[in-house]
Amino acid sequence: MIYYKFLIYYNVILFIIITLAYKSFQQNSPIHENNGTFKFFHKNANIRVRINDLLFQRSHQILQNLFVWQVQNAVIENQLQCFPEGCVTIYDFRITGVTLPKTFTLNPLPPNLLHLQMEMFDMDIQAKVNGNLQMLLGLPLTGNLIVTARSLFMPITLELQKTVNKVPIAHVTSCGLASGSVSAILQDAGVLTDIINIRYANELNMKAREVVESTLCDNMNRMVSSQINSKLKKFPRFLNVYEVMKYLDQVQKRYSRHITHQNWFPQRFYSQRYPRQVEMEISKTEPAIGSVKIVTPHIERNLSDIFDFKKLKNINIYLDIIDTSSSKTDYIIGIDGSADLIDKSNAKTYTNTFRHRNSLPNFPKNIKPKMLDVIIDGSILNNLLHQLWRNNAFNVKIDKKFPEFQHILKTTCTLDEVCISDSIPEVGENYPDQFLIIKTFLTSPPTAKANHDSIIMNIEGLSIFELEENGKKIGQIPFTAKIIINVKFIESSSKIKLSLEVPEIEIHNTVDFFGLEPEYLTSLKTGAVNVIQKFVNSKLSNGIDFQPFTSHLADMFGVYYPTITFLDSGELLFQSDLDVHRLYYSPHFYQ
């Protein structure tokens, strides 16, 4: 149960990293496969990333600089131009001048495209001409071709596609000169200069326009390939839960503010070893049955004592793009976000107890958009819980290493102590002077639903009681329980407060515990709940400070003013503004 608290913390931070790692670019259209055919998916996106108008406004400067740099370094292939009198080769092209467009915009275009528009820019090109024309006599033609393009207007549409290997790529779907004047004249061709310029002015101008248009469009494709797709292909297709945990642990340590906080992560993600000294003091004047004195070293226990974090290595969260859509003001990417096991050979099987949504998670209409909005469906949490259960991650063992549970684990005790025989005498009568081990596992996957201030979980499990001495099983208690994790965001602070309560727990009639009926186990049930609540809440008392993570996002990726909101619909909303230049040029983003 302690793991549940950690799970919420993990989910919030994990999906921030996921969504920021996938920062790429209201009718829904399936995303293209790379072969040009449509692929219809039978599942919905669990994560929707919405890029809003302000982010497009801040992005065009980067694209403009990249485009101009690409054009200035363009390589134009040799051209063949034929006339009735013969053909000439145009070669050694050089772009001698390019001006920045006065207007350069990037906007979403329904139903699922991006529209790039460059307006009012100029371009100058020079090339050499060589060939032979059969006029009255065969005359060699050599000279220079001067191409002048003025007030160009060039619209381009882009589409986010993916390869057959599910790697996202941007693709130029249309490109061409919509308007502008393009002219060409021949120079230094001797007596043929004026003849060619007068007789073949239209042919030269058409060839010049063709060269300018192909140069611009070819270089747009090169820019998309070298500057955008080269980065898109580095985006992860999945995230390993364990590796994300380690990354978050490193971030927390790096940005520590020298304030003592509860360590939510296992120490360096290694197994911890603790001494297990037990002193037995036998009094000569009192019965031995009540004289067991335990001297347990005071060691702060954390989650790694109960939960085996290495089991997280077997779980990936997949980031396959499911769909894309556009309105006039935003562009939305739908991401899978489902979890699955890597190795399923030892996995449990169970029919899902939660329903997948038939509709996409929707952004609330009453929110003020930031540059980036991300909505995460509540089914992701249930899916992750399901995979954790399949991987036997919820198997918990409680023994006397945990002093908080000793009064439940001791079968007998002195008059001034508390032990399990105080509420269940049959335990002490049958097994005096013993310690118990309680092994608890869930018999079905847990389910959860979040709202604006809490997360409600329902679990069904079985607790097996064994003797520590020889491992003999002495009873088992099947149960169902409701667990509420209260979430409180502290105003004017980067902290959130978490607390746990167990308002409902029911012992099933199939209980096998010294022949007792469920109603006779009420005191044991109440005591166990109180201990669990006290133990977990003591670990949560310091709250969770998000300052290390917000600082990391700002420093490394240019992510500013992030906010997290739990919606009553069970969804999680993440919003943030971005420094687009820092994000694009960050060396950390594409590692």
UniProtKB/TrEMBL annotation:
The chain crosses the membrane at residues 7-25. Keywords: Membrane, Transmembrane, Transmembrane helix. The keyword Membrane applies. InterPro entries: Bactericidal_perm-incr_a/b_dom, BPI/LBP/Plunc, Lipid-bd_serum_glycop_C. SUPFAM superfamilies: Bactericidal permeability-increasing protein, BPI. One of its GO terms (molecular function) is lipid binding. One of its GO terms (cellular component) is extracellular space. PANTHER family: BACTERICIDAL PERMEABILITY-INCREASING BPI PROTEIN-RELATED, BPI2 DOMAIN-CONTAINING PROTEIN. This is BPI2 domain-containing protein. It comes from Strongyloides papillosus.
